[in-house]
Amino acid sequence: MSGAKVAFAGSRMDRADHIRQSPEKLAELMDHRARLLLLEGLDPVIGEDCTLGWGSLADADPAAELVFLGLNGGRGCFAPVPLAGSVSPPNPRLWQAMATLSPEELAIYGGARSMVDWHARHRHCARCGNSTVLAKGGWQRNCTSPDCKAEHFPRVDPVTIMLVEHNGHILLGRQPRFPAGNYSALAGFVEPGETIEEAVAREVSEEAGVAVRDVSYVMSQPWPFPSSLMIGCHAWADDPKVTVDETELEDARWFSRAEVEEAMVAAKAGGKGQAFGAPPPSAVAHHLLNWWVERG
Ligand SMILES: [Zn+2]
After folding, report:
1. Who has the most CB within 10 Å: 65, 104, 222, 232?
2. Residue 152 Cα to ligand 1 middle (Å)
3. How far is Cα 187 from Cα 178, in angstroms, rounded to an integer?
4. How close is the Cα of 128 to the center of ligand 1, in Å?
5. Could you tell me what percentage of the chain is helix, strand and coil, using 3-state DSSP and rounding each to the nearest 5?
6. What confidence tier does 4 reach under pLDDT thresholds 50, 70, 90?
């Protein structure tokens, strides 16, 4: 793949798995040099210099659990889990705020957000209902019941997102919640018992009534709302007849290479193309469309 990097990826922080495994090493790192990512609930605190706000561990609420994010310049970096009941609805200005961050800072924030959100939603054991406690620097939670002792791990939810191609055209759909005129790649969660290829074929069949073959992987993107991994794929269709599932999509149709090229030029300038509005660079669909255009 070429072009700009996908959003929420590219953090150079050392995840330092060996430290997660060692309570002694972890305790040593939690000194006056340690850095605390400042969060308001799940949202970043961004300074006037458009960078993530960091403090010391003394800035954390004493009741807050801390997640070890990794090492940066030899210093331990941590993020506070929001206290029970303190997570507010998504801030409508979150996207504006994130847009000011550098790609690397956005990646650090996205990973931290997924982690602290998972902890905030897993205070009780899914097996027995007893309380759980943070373990291994936050890369695990353990059930406190001596009869259960279940171990729980931060989850990543795979989502397939695909460009389906037929005769120089790409199939895109629009959901009712999209801005007027916008279209994007079809997408859906991988279900238990499916391969990525099977999930792609099922989603395209369900949403657009199109059969696909020769599914291939193109690129991926973490999407921390709350913990998706977008798996970008390409597939071929032999029969272009579209039957839209109107419970999922408002419309789905084929766009020519010229239409996509024009829409991508407009999207990079923050606007809409003549035929449709393409997804913004924060979305992996934008990079998939770029990949397709550049591939020629
Ligand atoms: Zn349990």
Report:
1. 232
2. 9
3. 14
4. 4
5. 25, 30, 45
6. low
B/e letters for 264-294, b = 16+ CB within 10 Å, e = fewer, are bebbeeeebbebbbbbbbbbbbbbbbbbbbe
Distance 135 CA to ligand 1 centre (A): 14
Sign of the alpha-carbon torsion through 7, 9, 13, 16: positive
Report the C-alpha gap between 125 and 118 in whole angstroms: 13
Question: What Å distances lie between residue 95 and 30, 41, 259, CA to CA?
Answer: 31, 15, 27
CA 252 vs. chain centroid, Å, equals 24
Q: Cα separation of 61 and 82, whole Å?
A: 9
Ligand 1 geometric centre to CA of 123 (Å): 11
| Contact (CB, 8 A) for 252 and 207 | yes
Question: Who wins on pLDDT, 89 or 115?
Answer: 115
Burial of 73: CB neighbours in 10 Å, binned 0-12, 13-18, 19+:
exposed
pLDDT in tens, 179-232: 999 999 999 999 999 999 999 999 999 999 999 999 999 999 999 999 999 999
pLDDT computed for residue 283 by the predictor? 95
- pTM across the whole model: 0.94
E strand intervals along the chain = 35-37, 39-40, 43-44, 54-55, 66-72, 75-80, 132-135, 140-143, 151-152, 157-166, 169-174, 186-189, 213-223, 228-236, 251-256
115: its two tokens: 């982690």
Q: Do β-strands 157-166 and 228-236 pair in parallel, antiparallel, or remain unpaired?
A: parallel
Tokens of 248: 């999922």
C-alpha atoms less than 13 angstroms from C-alpha of 221 in its C-beta half-sphere: 23
